[in-house]
Amino acid sequence: MSSVLQAIEVSRHFDVSRPVLQRLLAGEKKRTLRAVDEVSFDIPRATTLSLVGESGCGKSTIARLAVGLYTPSSGEIRFEGHPLSSARAQPGLRRKMNMIFQDPYASLNPRWRVRDIVAEPIRAFGILSGQKAIADRVGELLSQVGLSPADGEKFPHEFSGGQRQRISIARALSSEPEFLVCDEPTSALDVSVQAQILNLMRDLQVKFGLTYLFISHNLAVVRHMSDRLGVMYLGRIVEQGPGEEIFRTPRHPYTRLLLDAIPDVAMVGRTRTPVSGEVPSPIAPPPGCTFHPRCPLANDRCRAEKPTQTKAGDVMVACHAVEEGRA
Amino acid sequence: MALLDVEKLVVEFPGRRGTLRALDEISFSIEPGEVLGVVGESGAGKSLTGAAIIGLLEPPGRIAGGQILLEGKRIDRLTADQMRPIRGKRIGAIFQDPLTTLDPLVSVGKQLVETMQTHLPLSDSEARKRAVGWLEQVGIPAASERVNAFPHQFSGGMRQRVVIALALCAEPKLVIADEPTTALDVSIQAQIIALLRNLTQQHGTSVMLVTHDMGVIAETADRVAVMYAGRIAEIGPVRDVVLHPSHPYTEGLMGSIPQLEHRVERLRQIDGSMPRLTSIPRGCAFNPRCTRVIDRCTLDRPDLMQHGATSAACWNMFS
Fold this sequence. Notes:
heterodimer, A: alpha/beta, 8-stranded mixed beta sheet, B: alpha/beta, 12 strands, about 25% strand
């Protein structure tokens, strides 16, 4: 299987220093936030790679890098073998990717009718011409996501959250993309509606052979959606591999922590010991392995030396303890 | 005697185009030391129930019927002045967003001292000592120094710990926790739930835990009430409701949650969405989405009926 998206040691840094004059007067150095730090992955065609992690771990930055909204500070992202950095010159490459956002209340223009929202990518890329052809295509797209073609005349405020997310999906599909980046597409929705949207997304994946990069903080949702899984912590992928494998035998201590922390309906009546500590600031991450202050297995090597990804079974893990067999 | 008794509570919002009934004859009770979970989707009336109990309904919303009894005394007819000593002293509240709950201009220690001195006869030094004690109890490291810190100097999880301390410091009998962990990351969420559970157990406080997260309820609550379109669809011990639901809505809700333990090809979905208050269907409000609908469902409105260990409002329950 060929890979659709490939990230090779991609980093993205942001300059978060104070304004130049203030900085010079206070004698401070430049401060950079390493939002994404040497991340590599590839996504084979018609599969889903999910990235999970807590706030501030760099999930959404990767989503933006993947569609070219940010350029990498170093490293390279390739889409179907072509470097994405030159995509500006290749609109043909751009229309093959699209994005679904988290908040369906903020991602749809409240002053546009739904038919114009859905048709925007069609017009922007010049895929179809003529009012009639575009209107037919919009009707078809709306039916595909479970709305009626007549809904095109309405405005976004006339729809519920779940229906709005369907409109976002219709818009994302309208440029006939092969690759969709979904950044927390269901975290603003209620569970019964979330189930509708997740089912719809899987149906569409099978129907059109779509490739997904799925970003979420909800591990149960991720388990349901993904073929492959990457667990992120402070800008790095600490464990990646086949989803089922990671859920069956989580190797990295952080993955285990995450899996243990989630309240689950299967846990009714049982008590658990919660993990302590919080995610440190990405501006001044701890030296060595960034997870060591919260890690039960940390030793001197973890505090000094950054772990690299090593293979353990089908899974790549960045952890000294796993590598040394201490885990 | 139950600590809190809510009987046939009706909350209405009068508007230009008629009156909207947001809560329709809700009845439940909370025993001393019990954790009652209230779940439901957005707009089901969960938060409104909490707001009505604590007397914080936003006008023009008003209690239009029924009664609320706290330790046998009615609290739904009290004036704002009469309600003030009850709020905080006898009913504490924890809201979703810890940043908006705390006063950004006052140190957390001062906020605790102020709350305690309003409700308890404490000297300045005694109140201050207790404030440090509370911060230690909720797990804030170096509490004696952090007591002078301001809310913005704490992380989200630490702020929510401070809010819990604030809600409990006047030793209320009942705490209403409205989505206390929704704004937090999963690893922090588990810490906060465990903290809330332990502290309320130690102090014998009852909790009404409002959330949309079934996982949180399953692990925290003793009993759970499932709300749909302003009514209680099912109420009972958490184990029965989660594992053997009687109401088709509860069943659908449980089936639609992706599980960690095993993966299914398709999630169960409840088609459609909850009706708006302006267009609640006749009969059972859930009938257009229900898979077990019978003729009676579209005509008569079901009340809660005892069914095994739980009570459910359904004409055609799972047996």
